[in-house]
Amino acid sequence: MDNVTRAKWDKAAPTFDIMAGRGAEQRWRPFKQALFNNMDGKILFLALGTGLDIETFPPQKNITAIDISPKMLEVARPRVAAYDGEIDVKVADVHELDFADDSFDQIFTSCTFCSVPRPVEGLISLRRVLKPGGELYMFEHTGSRYYPFKFMMNLMTLLTRRIGPEMNRTTVANVRAAGFEIQEVNNLFMDVVKTIRAIKPA
Ligand SMILES: C[S@@+](CC[C@H](N)C(=O)[O-])C[C@H]1O[C@@H](n2cnc3c(N)ncnc32)[C@H](O)[C@@H]1O
Q1: What number does the ligand 1 atom closest to the CA of 116 have?
Q2: Which residue's CA is the nearest one to ligand 1's atom 5?
Q3: Atom of ligand 1 nearest to the CA of 94
Q4: Ligand 1 atom closest to Cα of residue 2
Q5: Does the beta carbon of 54 lie inside 6 Å of ligand 1?
Q6: DSSP run (H or E) holding 90
Q7: DSSP state, residue 189
Q8: Domains of the chain with bracketed CATH
Q9: Blockwise average pLDDT, block size 10, the chain, 202 residues
């Protein structure tokens, strides 16, 4: 377990909803909802955090949700309890998953790979537990291609990486480097966030 990352997010837990629950999160909500509407079969949700995303999950799904931070998951508890379906919550580091190979039909992530310390290794770990032909759906902060935003995000990352995320990652390239086939990328909000759909080759 990566105790440094865990401690960083445990510390962020009490104020996370105030910092993240408004503003951008409200604007992203319809895009997250559209992505999560693809949920089907046996699902792994990486980085449940305080569970802000749960409201946008379709009902009656069978979801295993993990996060490295027990304190984030503690805040998520009432949202998990209110979900109309199954959410099985576990503390786990994406780099050290103890699920069997080929366990899940689909994996979803939301604002995660800006925070995972070794993103390609984390993605390789996800590929292992996904069934061949299974789908990875991501909603992620990434570096923007557009100059003012690219510059701004590089600058912001100098600060944000101390408390949590790095806003300028090359996540599409990382997904490819981890052995997935990219099926679809949607650049949202001047490319500051993206939705990505990829598959584990059969
Ligand atoms: C920016 S928050 C996003 C939470 C939630 N998905 C949302 O959008 O509200 C990032 C989350 O990633 C989790 N995380 C960071 N590194 C992780 C790792 N190595 N394994 C599992 N979870 C991790 C953190 O604990 C935190 O809850």
Answers
A1: 16
A2: 49
A3: 20
A4: 19
A5: no
A6: strand 86-91
A7: T
A8: 3-199 (3.40.50.150)
A9: 90 88 78 96 97 97 97 98 98 97 97 87 97 97 69 71 70 95 87 89 93
